[in-house]
Amino acid sequence: MLVKGSTKTNFNKSNQETPFPVLLEMAKNGDEKAFKAIYDALSGKMYSLCLRYAGNPNDANDYFQDGIIRVYRNLANFKGTGSFEGWARRIFVNTCLDHINKKQKLNFSEINDEISIETNELTGVERLSHTDLFKLIQKLPEGYRTVVNLYLVEEYNHKEISEMLGISEGTSKSQLSRAKTLLQKSIAAHYDR
Q1: Each residue of 134-184: pLDDT tens digit?
Q2: What CA–CA distance (Å, rounded) separates 183 from 120?
Q3: CB of 145 closer than 8 Å to CB of 137
Q4: Where in the chain are the domains?
Q5: What is the pTM of this model?
C-alpha cells in the first residue's frame, strides 16, 4: 500500500526492502515484477475508486483496466513531486470520467419540485458502515454520484469539478446539495428499517 509522501512502499516480502523510487525506475525500464508490485499496491484502492464512479462491477472492471494501462504508459511522466498514489488516483479519476462521458452525457438535472433542498448537512453518516454508505451513494443518479465522489471523496472544489465535467460551478453546487438531500433521506430510511 502506498503512503502519501512516502518514498517506501509496503509490498510483499520480496520487495519490502526496495525503495519505491527504485521500483518505479525499474518499472519505467520495463521490469514486469516491479510494475506488478506497483499494481498490487494500487489495485485495491483504485478498483474501489472505479466502482464508486461506475456504479456496477462490469463497468468498474473496464475503468480499472483502462486506468492501470494509462498509469503504466505514463510512468515516465511521474516526476516524483507529491505522492505516486495521488498521481495515479488522478489518472484513474480522469479515466472514470472519460468512460462516463463516452457512455452517455451526464445528466445534471435542474432544480424541480420533486426534490426539495431541506438541508446541506448530512447527519447519521457516522453510524453507517463504510459498506452501507457506499451502497447508498451507488443508488444516486449518475450525475449526483459523480459530483459526490469528486467533491466529498476526492476533495476537488466546485471550480475544479466544473472544469472537469464541463458544467458551471452553480450546477456542481446544486448537484451536490440535491445529492446530500437524497442521501439524508436514504440514511433516515436505512435506520427506519
Answers
A1: 888 888 888 899 999 999 889 999 999 999 998 899 999 999 999 999 988
A2: 11
A3: yes
A4: 13-103, 125-192
A5: 0.76
CB 37 within 8 A of CB 15: yes
Equal CATH topology for 13-103 and 125-192: no
Task: Specify the CATH class of 13-103 in words.
Answer: mainly alpha
Burial class (CB in 10 A: 0-12, 13-18, 19+), 117: exposed
Q: Which residues of 78-87 are buried (b: 16+ CB within 10 A; e: fewer)?
A: eeeeebbbeb
Kindly report the CATH class assigned to 125-192: mainly alpha
Lowest mean pLDDT among 7-16, 86-95, 137-146: 7-16
Place of cell 520487495: 15
